[in-house]
Specification:
alpha+beta; seven-stranded antiparallel sheet; globular; disordered N terminus
Length: 153
């Protein structure tokens, strides 16, 4: 979901992190993930969403967000999204304040060993990037017929 969607539920501002979490889960449900492990913990400092999404090629997206609601909008106090394929990190977005030289500080992106300026992504944006990489991988290595999945309509 986009930030505008996150800030508004049924035309009203967000009243709780639970509403944010519900939208977060909707994005995951509409993703290419084949299995999901996710936890949601609330405390006074903010609520933490932590888990991993697993994809058909064995890759996974690990994620953590600590979120609070300020003026009816979700604010990410901490976030990290790390995509791993073949046991190696492909990319990682985070907002840890350890690269003050980047113009988007504290937000940045790691691609292999390179660090790049990046704006704070939404889960939808990260999932779009993962989907593009999954599509590229499918073109590179065709799946054997025995592994194809059929979905019932």
């Amino acid at each position: 979901f986009q930030a505008s969607e996150a800030g508004s539920v049924s035309g009203k501002g967000m009243r709780s992190v639970q509403e944010y979490f519900d939208l977060f889960v909707q994005v995951i449900e509409h993703s290419a993930a084949e299995s999901v492990e996710i936890e949601f913990d609330e405390d006074q400092q903010g609520s933490t969403i932590e888990g991993a999404l697993y994809f058909h090629d064995g890759s996974r997206l690990e994620l953590t967000e600590t979120v609070t609601i300020v003026r009816y909008r979700p604010v990410k106090l901490y976030s990290v999204y790390q995509y791993i394929r073949g046991g190696e990190g492909v990319f990682r977005y985070d907002n840890a304040p350890h690269h003050p030289d980047l113009p988007t500080f504290p937000h940045h992106k790691h691609v292999r060993k390179e660090r790049l300026p990046a704006t704070e992504p939404t889960l939808s944006q990260v999932m779009s990037e993962v989907s593009a990489l999954l599509s590229e991988g499918a073109k590179e290595t065709p799946r054997p017929l025995g592994r194809r999945r059929r979905t019932k309509r």
